[in-house]
Amino acid sequence: MEHMTLLIGIVIATALVFDFTNGFHDTANAMATTISTGALKPKTAVAMAAVLNLVGAFLSVAVAKTISGGIIDESAGVKPEMIFAALVGAIVWNMLTWLAGLPSSSSHALFGGLIGATLVAVGRHGVHGEAVVMKVLIPALAAPIVAGLASTLATRLSYRLGRNADPAATAKGYRAGQIASAGLVSLAHGTNDAQKTMGVITLALITGGVVAPHADPPLWVIVSAGAAIALGTYIGGWRIIRTMGKGLTDIQPQQGFAAQTGAAATILASSHLGFALSTTQVCSGSVMGAGLGRKGAVVRWSTAGRMVAAWGLTLPAAGLVAAGAALLTDQGTWGVVTVAVAGLAICAAIRTAARRKPITHTNVNDEPAAADATATEPQGAVTAAIAAVIPPPVGVPGTTPAPTA
After folding, report:
1. What's one GO MF term for it (predicted)?
2. Average pLDDT of span 356-364
């Protein structure tokens, strides 16, 4: 029993480390466009996001229950060692994509880790396949498309409504709107992503017999998970913020407001339904949609392609790492220690590599090196096709003025 208690403690600590990496990995979701347009200073933006992430963690437990009892069958022989292996797989993938500056999904890294470790440690019957399809895979495909279409239409509507307004006054107003919408995204992020760690900790407590199956997360779990993701958010994932704010497209205040509002609505709706979707994919889709919505804007499809590739690799990659870790942790104490040491070594190496080209709040708005070559990227086939189908609104810079009577 003493060994079990210690192991559960290790799992909880590892889950909070994952929550911390989730925070700095996903800061860009709420604040990248706000920072890139100058609506808020970088440090102010991440502080605001951190506070609202913490508040959002207390608003719902629907997503936490999806994790603790929806995807994995806690009665199928799931052990704390397996959960530990799943978390290590998710953390390693989060750190690798953070180093590359790619806004991949922390949520899918966690799902992949849980699925991979469960398949090795328990077998196929330990995974609820229908729940994975309905509450993970389908939202993963639909959410970025829905959010992208919403922000494209919202961007076009914003420019049309402001076609006769003073550009400087309009930009100032939309920057204020960006602050409000960024706060809403941060709140929504807390209601969705913080709960995933709550669900994992609750699952560990259930497998250890500490709480009853299908129980809600205890209050101390909610507080600790909310605090961990808030701290990670405040640290600021500057590498990914640069990619989201500058690497995908050039964002103006109208676009930033439209992208954040569309993303927040999508995330809040999914949290209410218990869909543990990827806030990263939603917000990235919204940014790309906002780029398509403004005449003359260029979506850098090379960067977008790398992001989509990372999205597709996240579940299997994290699952493979977790599966290997699960094979070791199943061997006993020495296996758990080996996985812990290897995970720490990999994370330390990634951190050392990141220090060679540091990105902080002081240089986050510099153009990304990858984007320098594409700063004058011509309008791509996808952008041109969409522009041909949906004519640009009157009054948008780069369009022919409407004839007067």
Report:
1. phosphate transmembrane transporter activity
2. 82
